[in-house]
Amino acid sequence: MWQPIGVVAASGIAYGTVAKYRCDPDILGCQDPAYTGQGTCCTTQSNMGWRYLLIILGGMTLLIFFLRYFVFNFHESPKFLLSKGKEQEAIDVLHKIAKFNKQPPPTLTVEHFRAVDIDAGVDPKAIEESRPMTWKESTVKAWLNFKDSMVKLSGLFRNRLQAFIFVLLAVAYMVSSHHNM
């Protein structure tokens, strides 16, 4: 919802600055090699619209950043916290959200999560003993995932016809994407 509102606001600011504080498109710039020194030329002072636009939008961005960072207190997503095995932190966030919304706190506990794990056949001890991966383990896992992805992509090249069709589609997509830029 906010992105289209931001686009409309930026367009309105651009219309009020760039359109008002600019040179006529038919006038050459004073530094243009084609300008002979005869007649009027477009100076920096008479073409400040786009600079004003960038200053205003940059100022708004900084203001929103400071408001977001210092004024508004956002919490981490409970879903993200659960994915990292931080059940108690996820429950704490849900309590804070309920308090902010003036709703009764949830009755969810860490034991509920453990019961779900047991029902799913996951060993709770294995979860408690899990630790963050080292850099080496993470690199090996990423490499194995990449290797698996390449094996799956090899299906596109099983025979000459499939490979030819894939290459044609890829080139057509790249050319049409480049053309639209």
Characterise the protein shown here.
The protein is mainly α. The chain has 8 helices and no strands. The model has no long low-confidence stretch (mean pLDDT 86). Helix 1 runs antiparallel to helix 2. It starts with a helix and ends with a helix. It is flat and about 85 Å long.
Number of helices: 8
User: What Rg do the Cα atoms give?
Assistant: 29 Å
Q: Report the β-strand fraction as a percent range.
A: under 5%
Helix content: 55-70%
In sequence order, what are the helices and strands, one letter per element? HHHHHHHH
- Any low-confidence stretches, pLDDT <50, length ≥5? none
Shape: flat
Structural class: mainly alpha
Largest beta-sheet details: none
Quick structural summary:
With 181 residues, the protein is an all-alpha fold. The chain is built from 8 helices and no strands.
Question: What is the topology?
Answer:
Layout: H1 2-17, H2 49-71, H3 78-83, H4 87-100, H5 110-119, H6 124-129, H7 135-153, H8 160-180
Helix pairs in contact: 1-2
